[in-house]
Each structure stands twice: as structure tokens, then as C-alpha cells.
Amino acid sequence: MKTPENSMTISYWQKSEETITRDALESFQLEKLGETLRHVYANVPFYRSRCDEAGIDPSRIKSLDTIKRLPFTTSDDLRLNYPYGLLAVPKDEVVRVHTSSGTTGKPKALFFSKGDIERSANLIARCLVMTGTGKSDTLQNMMTYGLFTGALVMHYGAERVGALVIPAGPGNTDRQISLMRDFGTTAVHITPSYALYLASVLQKKGIDPGKDLNLRRAYMGAEPYSEETRKKIENLFGIDVYNSYGLTEMNGPGVAFECPYKNGMHLWEDHFLVEIINPETGEVLDEAREGELVITSLRREAMPLIRYRTRDITKILSDTCACGRTHRRISRIMGRSDDMFVVKGVNIFPQQIEQILMGIKGVAQNYQIVLESLDQLTIKVEISKDLFDGNIDHLLKLQAAITAKVRAEILVKPTIELLEPGTLPVSEGKAKRVIDIRTM
Ligand code: AMP
Ligand code: ZN
């Protein structure tokens, strides 16, 4: 079996920070939490009044639990304070802004100081070195450059480790393939939905990634995807896929990342303090339970956020990891609490459906979930071209198999529509998997 031990030597970018003992890590977190609270108390009226109301004196922070007395910061708080309300340094100290769009109203603006850029590049460098990317690699960055953090933050980190970075951005698939061939791309940074599409284009062109490309690994994130999708993409390209998690509010990518053991994503706890809460009640849960991830930034200078509600559902894995890193891991993101939908009274995450679909032979790369009424959903599934061979039996069998497997998982019987590959819209950025026509 291919194990991380015999396929690569374990290396670190910042070994002492990455393998720090738990005791030392917790003391360090306490020190940085104190610094962060003093910084926002002095510079952000929004947080000063919150500390005052909770009776917290930032000059005397004795325990990490102190923050549990402060209210959460939500994306609405960011919107209401748009653009400069939560800035903690003079504007002259800010060198970059990113925005995160969200679905409604005003955007959220997130600022970076020079130090913030430096630290975020180092966190990405940790992630890349951890998974074997270094000087000899060529990383093709297929995330969107611009106001999103995805591409730029990864770009700086990849340059930091000395890789050759191709700032390709997403889309223009023919050009992506030429770039991959011309420059011998070894790693890509890509969304799962675009990776699936790229694989289908390679197939159509008769390009065998194993023979015709030099690709070894993909860094994949920005949207929830299942373990089945990871495996499918690993097999289609013959590469390793590493899960990469981050959000604009916490620098963008580089918050948590898989190591070669791929058993959850190490979350860099010397930069981020995490809690898990019940998304409905806000109650702090035992960290081993699944719930919403709440993050306090410990090192952000321009715009620290205290107890930020990510809306992402996960749990914390505290057992030791064989790679030697002591930072705990979070499990694959189950979905966003606001992505969950209810059919026939059952709570369903799109990823539960995806996991089933991607594990079924004959299912191709793209699908869409259509919510039709409170008790009816349709799943449109692209299937492999050779199944349209004129024999209706093959299609009926597959349709019945998908219906049964999805029903067993979500306890609701879906209508399954089988489609030829290339029928459903393809997204270059974050995929829109669920179409809700109940309120349209
Ligand atoms: P943005 O701030 O626009 O970069 O979006 C951040 C959001 O993307 C996160 O809060 C997650 O909901 C989602 N996301 C990012 N990386 C992942 C990942 N690896 N798995 C699941 N969701 C992710
Ligand atoms: Zn590890």
C-alpha cells in the first residue's frame, strides 16, 4: 500500500511551531488572545463596548475560556460595519482589501496589513511543504484572482516556498490544458466542481492525465465536497487530492489543511482559536461533537475577529496524527448551516447526496438538486455517455439504483433524471448545486 511514509519524506516549513507541545501551544494561544483583545479594545469601538458589557478587562486575560463571555461576531456584524467599522489599525497600515460577497446586501470587507500578508503566506507555505510542494514544483492556480482571497493568498504562499506559480485563474479549459502541458504543471489549486469538469474535458480530448500530464497533486477547497468526490478525482487524474479549508474572514485559504495522512485538516491553532457550537442555539458544544465552527483570530492585525461564526459544520479531531503535527484537525466540512434544506421534515445537506452519487458507477461529473416542494426533490444527474446505448434497461436499472441509495441515505424518495454529460451548467467558481424553486 502507498503510505505517506514511503511516498514522501515528512517535512515542515516551521517545524517548531508545527510540532509545538500542546501545553506550550495553549500558553501561546493565551498570550496571543490577550494581545488581540487589548488591540481591539484600544482600536475598535465595537469590541470595546462588547468587552465592557461582558465585564472583561483585556489587560487581565487568565484563561482561554474568557472569550466565551463575549458574544459571537457574525457576517451581519461585518456588513453593518462595512467598510471600515471593524478596522483595528490606521488606514495607512492597510495594504490590501478582499471582499466576500455572500448572498444578500452589502459585501464584507476584510483588510490585511503587511504583517497579515506575511503571516498568511507562511501558513500556506506550511500547507504546501506538508504535502510535498516545494521549489521543484509548478503550481497552476485555477482559483479566481481578484477580490476573492482564494487565488492571491495561495499565490503568495506558493511563491514563498519557491514553486513556479502559473496565475491561470479559472475557466478557459483549453488554455488550462495547454499551460499544464507546456509548463509541466505538478500541482493545481482548484475547486472540486471545476476539477470534475476539467477531467471530463480531458476525457473528451483523449488526454490521459497519467501519461500526458505531469500532475501529482491537487489542492481542493472553497466549497464542500465529499470523500467520494475526492476519490473520484484522485482516480480520474491519478493524483493525490488534499482538502484545503479557509475563509476570507480568516485570511482565506490556509486556515486548515490536510497532511499526507488525509485524516482531517490540521487547523493552525497558533493563529486561530476554535470552538464548536450548536448552530441553532449558540450553545458551546463538546469539541468532539459535530456543530458550527467558531474562530477567533489570534494573529490578525488589521482586522481581528472575535468568535466569528463561520456557518461551517464540522467537528474537532483531537487524536494524535502520525505526521507529528500537534495542531488538532477538523473533519471534512459537512456543509454550511445555511445550505441545509428540509424535505418531508428531514434535514439534508447537499453533500450527503453528492457522496452517494459519486460512489455509483456510471455517474459522471455533474449533478443538480432541485427543490420542488416541501416534500419533493428532483436530482438531475449526468451519467456516462456509453450508457445511452439504446438499451433502456441499462438506464432504468441505474435510475432505480440511484433512487434506492439516495433514499436510504436521506430517507426521502427523490425523482432521478438522467442526463447526458455536458447538459447541466458548469461553474468556474463555487458550484451552485441546489436550485430552490419553492419560493420562485
Ligand atoms: P470565501 O470567504 O468566499 O472564501 O468562502 C469561504 C467558505 O467557503 C467557507 O466558509 C466554507 O463554507 C467554504 N469552504 C472553503 N473551503 C472549504 C472546504 N475545503 N470544504 C468545504 N467548504 C469550504
Ligand atoms: Zn498530520
Compact summary:
This protein is α/β, with parallel strands linked by helices and 440 residues long.
Give an overview in words.
The structure is a single chain. With 440 residues, the protein is α/β, with parallel strands linked by helices. It has helices spanning 4-7, 15-18, 22-43, 45-54, 75-80, 114-130, 149-160, 173-183, 192-205, 209-212, 227-237, 350-358, 392-410; strands spanning 94-100, 108-113, 138-141, 164-166, 187-190, 217-221, 240-247, 252-258, 265-267, 272-277, 291-297, 308-314, 316-317, 329-330, 335-336, 341-343, 346-348, 363-373, 376-383, 415-419, 434-436. Strands 4-3-5-6-7-8-9-14-13 form a nine-stranded mixed sheet, sandwiched between helices. The chain is globular and about 75 Å long. The model has no long low-confidence stretch (mean pLDDT 94). The structure holds adenosine monophosphate (AMP) and zinc ion. Adenosine monophosphate is lined by residues 100, 148-150, 221-224, 243-248, 252, 310, 312, 333, 336. Adenosine monophosphate binds at residues 100, 148-150, 221-224, 243-248, 252, 310, 312, 333, 336.
